[in-house]
Structures are given as structure tokens and as C-alpha cells.
């Protein structure tokens, strides 16, 4: 069984919602990324997304765009990120997911990329710019290597939700609002109605992300979903840290605060 399935099964037994945290791999450097993943797991992160830095991340707001720029400047290439995941796997079995833009996979080689994901211990990939009409090839390769492809839906997806989710595995990433990622003070989407619509088309766990920036927001939305995804707010803490120790402390405290409200 995939680590993601195992995690959601365990959390369901404990009546907990999953805390899914995101960091950009290589921001500020890959050594820090390895230590951050271990620290976030200890602080309560149930699943961790690693963003593969990209020069033109269309789905991401300024915070994550800037983190990609820093990571690329510091030499965070896919091969090195794969090496870092191998280091993480020596210390942790936390479910790991790559968030990666399709052009990065295409340039690296689809089969090579997915095969290496399987080899190093990546459980799933999220490809925010992969059109539904063009995903058959990558699903076939992902299935071959036992790597899940996580589907993304948005409030505007509606009649396309069934088609988007039918070949997905692990969980469905429910984008909370239209636009790009980023810290938001409020979300205007009717989350209860939106999650009910998604539930009509899939039994996969629903993970809500984009804009959730505090424990208060996580607490507000947890009744309607199975997981809360926090990205930009964590990446912001990474950017604010003056050194590795301060980054790890800031992020650990923040992740712990989110997880606390998802436990009951």
C-alpha cells in the first residue's frame, strides 16, 4: 500500500485530519530542505509536498515564485533533489509528494523522472499545469512505477470534476479559490458547498489548499475536508529565517500549531 493511503487510513482511525505541508526543495539550500522535512514530520506534518523549483510557476504567487528563484540560484536541480529525497528516506517514511510543472518532467524525460521518483521513495506527483486531455501517457508510466498522480480540482471545475478525479490516486487537491497560491486572510468560496460537490464524484480524501495561512483558518475549514494543505505561509517562514536553526524553529512551531487544531 502507498504511504499516502496508509497515512489517511491511520488518521481516519484516530479521527484526525491530515496536515499537508509544502516547501520548495532547495530553498534556501538542499541540506536545509532535508532537515526541514524531518522537523516538519516531528512537528505533526502527515504528508509533505516538495516543490521542484521552476522558472515560470504559473499556479504560484509571489512567495513561492521567489522561493523557486532562490532555489534555482543555489543549484537545486532535479537530480540533486532526488539525492536529497534519498537522504530523507534514510531517516523518515513520511509520505512525500513532488509538486512539479510538466515542462520540468518533459525536459528530464518522463519515464526517467517517474522511475527515479519510485527509486528514491516519492509517493506521488502533483502537476498543476497538466491538462486532463494530455495526462494518459504520464498516468500509464506512473502506474507502472507505483507513483500516484494527484488530481487538482478548482471551484470552477464543476462538471469536469468526475473526469479530473477518475484516474487520480492518493487524494484530490481541492484548490480553495481561483487565482494563484499565496497567503490569504479570508477565502470567499463556499467551502462546504464546494466539498459536497467534489464528494459526489470521488471517494478519495479531499485536501484543501491555496491560501490557508493560519491555525484559525485550518480549524474553520477542517469539518469539510480530510486534509489541510499549507504552502505559502510556510515558505514565508523559510524566507524570514536568518539561518537554518531559526528557519527550522519558525516552521516547526507553525506546523505544530496547525496540526494541533486538526487532531480532534
From TrEMBL:
Catalytic activity: (1S,2R)-1-C-(indol-3-yl)glycerol 3-phosphate + L-serine = D-glyceraldehyde 3-phosphate + L-tryptophan + H2O
Name under which the protein is recorded: Tryptophan synthase alpha chain
Family statement: Belongs to the TrpA family.
Molecular function via GO: tryptophan synthase activity
One Pfam match: Trp_syntA
InterPro entries per UniProt: Aldolase_TIM, RibuloseP-bd_barrel, Trp_synthase_alpha_AS, Trp_synthase_suA
EC number: 4.2.1.20
Purpose: The alpha subunit is responsible for the aldol cleavage of indoleglycerol phosphate to indole and glyceraldehyde 3-phosphate.
Catalytic residue positions: 49, 60
Metabolic or biological pathway: Amino-acid biosynthesis; L-tryptophan biosynthesis; L-tryptophan from chorismate: step 5/5
Any single Gene Ontology cellular-component annotation: cytosol
SUPFAM superfamilies with a match to the protein in the record: Ribulose-phoshate binding barrel (SSF51366)
EC top class named in words: lyase
Subunit structure: Tetramer of two alpha and two beta chains.
Keywords: Amino-acid biosynthesis, Aromatic amino acid biosynthesis, Lyase, Tryptophan biosynthesis
Annotated source species: Clostridium magnum DSM 2767
Keyword Amino-acid biosynthesis on entry: yes
